[in-house]
Amino acid sequence: MQAGRMNWIAMFLALFTVSTASADECVILLHGLARTSASMETMAEAIDAAGFVAINIDYPSRKYPIEELAPMAIGKGLVSCESNDAIEKVHFVSHSLGGILVRKYLSVNDIPRLGRVVMLGPPNQGSAAVDKLGDVPGIDWVNGPAGRQLGKGADSVPLQLGPAEFELGIIAGNRSIDPITSAVLDDPDDGKVSVEDTKLEGMDDFIVVEHSHAFMMRLQKPIELTIRFLQTGSFIEMRQGERVRMVTSLGIIELELYPDEAPITVENFLRLVGGAHLDGGTFYRVVSPENDNGSPVISVIQGGIGDTESPFPPIAHETTATTNLPHLDGSISMARAEVGTATTEFFICIGDQPALDFGGTRNADGQGFAVFGQVVSGMDVVRAIHESPADALTDDAYVQGQILEDPVDIISLRRLR
């Protein structure tokens, strides 16, 4: 190992990892298409230094179809793990095609001691590049039979496999060094697969990094995230007072979050932010004493991704009685129907709103809503949204007069460091 890389890994572990694992946890690493185990060596060294037993598998990705590669590569890894009698749990870290091999293998085999799986840049919904560039001379020589199986057509193996029924975190890239391939992919993409096509039903966490497909598995941030997920089952490192900048079409709103008081709700929100799931959403509803159809009247703006399906399951409800975070002017809180149904929709208070707290009478169940942060800058933007015309037609009498005629775009949300 080169001294410079060793020093970087040691510094990385000191700064970023939550804790070191015990040596009874094995991590099988699987490289991508037309690569070798050398491409995963930096990742393997960091995982090993974090206290896991790293098994970096080399397999002939260009020589065989996926149905032969999956048992070949994963079987080899399992034999290596099982040769150590101390191993009690087996995790996987994969890049690109490696993630599809994991899915294929688990579709027909059980791994009794299966732990967590991290996939970097996986074409879980296939890659349009395979279909659109399939006639390029020499492409089959470069990618082999498995490459043909990673598209979106009838031969697509990823699309024939089901949702994840194992603990899964996915890291997607949104930077490309391959303009030709990127030209045939939906934006954003990593040069081989679009961000959207990396997602998989049943995933437990998802995050986007500003790296390309070719190099993400070698770089510090993805390695940091990978080890954190292996250790905790989450990519999120939560810090009290964490700030998030929300860029809207009417201006910038800066939020401060409180994970010490509302850990479940903050983790959910940061997961949505980290995966860019709220980018492209809107503020679409405003409620004021003049248009409120409920009682007691409130003043809020509501936003999120609306009818778009949530990428993650609903979260447990953290009441204001538990968190001691009341609905004050500028509080951000989760919208919900029944208790335990909150996912992606949120609202911001204009003025204090005690009727939304635990024991308040706004909701018949008396459980209130879950505050998890506070606007620290941009209340002028919040009020501008609140004053926007709300004349859009709706069949729902309860929100009549509250739906914005021109929803305010949520352009992006990003954590501030």
Summarize the structure in words.
The protein has 417 residues and is an alpha/beta fold. The protein folds into two domains: 3-232, Rossmann fold (3-Layer(aba) Sandwich), CATH 3.40.50; 243-416, Cyclophilin-like (Cyclophilin, Beta Barrel). The chain has twelve helices and 14 strands. It has helices at residues 3-16, 41-49, 66-82, 97-108, 128-132, 139-148, 179-182, 195-198, 220-232, 263-274, 320-323, 379-386; strands spanning 25-30, 53-57, 89-95, 114-120, 167-173, 205-209, 243-248, 251-257, 281-287, 300-304, 331-334, 346-349, 370-377, 403-416. The strands form two sheets. It has an eight-stranded antiparallel β-barrel. It has a six-stranded parallel sheet with strand order 2-1-3-4-5-6, sandwiched between helices. A hairpin with a 2-residue loop joins strand 7 and strand 8. Helix 1 (3-16) crosses helix 2 (41-49) and helix 3 (66-82) packs across helix 4. The longest helix has 17 residues, at 66-82. The protein is elongated. The model is unreliable at 14-19 (pLDDT under 50).
